[in-house]
Amino acid sequence: MKIAIDARIISISTGRYVERLLHHLQEIDHQNEYLILLLAKDYEEWEPLAPNFHKVKADFPIYSVAEQINLLKLLRRLRPDLVHFTMPNHPVLYRGRHVTTIHDLTLIDYVNRRKEGFFKDILKNIIKPAAFRGVMWWAATQSTAVITPSKHVREQLIRRFGAKGARVNVTYEAAEPLAAKPEPADLGQGKDFIMYCGNAFPYKNLWRLIRAFDRLHRPDMKLVLVGKREYFYEQLEAKTKSKGINNVIFTGYIPDAELAYLYEHTKVFVFPSMSEGFGLPPLEAMNYGVPVLAARSSCLPEVLGDGAEYFDPDSTDSLVEQLDALLDDPERRKELAKAGRERVKQYSWQRMAELTLSIYERTR
User: Fold this and answer.
1) pLDDT tens, residue by residue, 168-193
2) Per-residue burial over 240-273, b = 16 or more CB atoms within 10 Å of its CB, e = otherwise
3) Which listed residue, of 71, 152, 176, 184, carries a Cα 20 to 30 Å from 191's Cα?
4) Which contiguous run of DSSP H or E holds residue 234?
5) 3-class SS at 19?
6) At a CB cut-off of 8 Å and minimum separation 6, what does 227 contact?
């Protein structure tokens, strides 16, 4: 079977999923032929390790007109037996057998509004979300098979889009050590800090975390927010300063080895997000023996289980109370760290790849 995998997202936020999928498929499948579709910027970076894997340049921006027209032409020329679209952004006119991974419904439920001018605001905040909703419906109902990273997302697709349950498959993701050897990171965090890692989109609920931290009244403690500097982090940092809230460190991007060091030394990892499809950062923290405090929202209780404590994501009071209690209870933090290490063992990227391959085989 000739299988094309759309890997154009390999270097962005959900790219970890694609990179691990390709890595393990090359280890376990030496029978099928694979065509790996890559953007030009990633074409030279990614190299196949198995002889049955071949890369193909597909330099069509995600969520673009070129994607709908030129990617469709490319697929018709390649004539694969099966295509795996690793996000629901495929050409809607493609009629061949295909599997689509739908990571979450966040972009439908939450619009990340930016102030960029009247016409750009309409395009990004109204037209694009509406178009994405249509593409999501198409992917959920017309794909040969659908993959989701959690039962939560699977149930959403069935309930809200009418996806057929027999076609929607859950393949949990996993967390691995970020670096072979952590490297000390001196960002002014000192020895007494809590942290968050991820994007700063409004649904990530970081302003609530900052307000809760300010209400802890712990002058020697720092809040470390790790994430690449972009519009929403810049807005959040400016707002934090304007409100006179101190001891909040915005790190910007940091290398994995330094992030691993922060994980190893933080008191608590807080993940206040309102919407996730899987929730990889708190699992990464668990891998380093970090006690996790997460929002009781979306898939997080399903994925993190008893390896974390939870708070009401709509209540700053709840977050303050839970965080304060956890910081005052070193024994509970040890218990959570141990439970988290056990929880993370339940997930495996290789198992994810094996389940994905079995889904490919069932589409024959």
Assistant:
1) 999 999 999 888 789 999 999 999 99
2) beeeeeebbbbbeebeeebbbbbbebbbbbbbbb
3) 176
4) helix 231-242
5) helix
6) 197, 198, 199, 200, 233, 251, 252, 253
Could you tell me which residues are beta bridge partners of residue 5? 36, 84
| Residue 40 DSSP class | H
Residue 45: how many CA atoms within 13 Å on its side-chain side? 11
Per the listing, tokens 């790790």 go with 226
Transcribe 287-309 into DSSP letters.
Answer: HTT--EEEES-TTHHHHHGGGEE
Q: What is the 3-state secondary structure (H, E, C) of 157-194?
A: HHHHHCCCHHHEEECCCCCCCCCCCCCCCCCCCCCCEE
Every domain of the chain and the residues it spans: 2-174+348-362, 193-344
Query: pLDDT of 83-139, one tens digit each?
Result: 999 999 889 899 999 999 999 999 888 876 666 665 565 656 666 667 778 888 999
Domains 2-174+348-362 and 193-344 share a fold: yes
Structure tokens at 253: 């991007």
Please provide residue 189's backbone torsions phi and psi, each rounded to the nearest 5 degrees.
-80, -20
Distance CA 300, CA 312 (A): 12
What's the rounded mean pLDDT across residues 252-257? 94
Class (C level, CATH) for 193-344: alpha beta
Residue 146 buriedness (CB in 10 A; 0-12 / 13-18 / 19+): buried
User: 97-133: b or e for each residue (b if 16 or more CB lie within 10 Å)?
Assistant: bbbbbbbbbbbbeebbeeeeeeeeeeeeeeeeeeebe
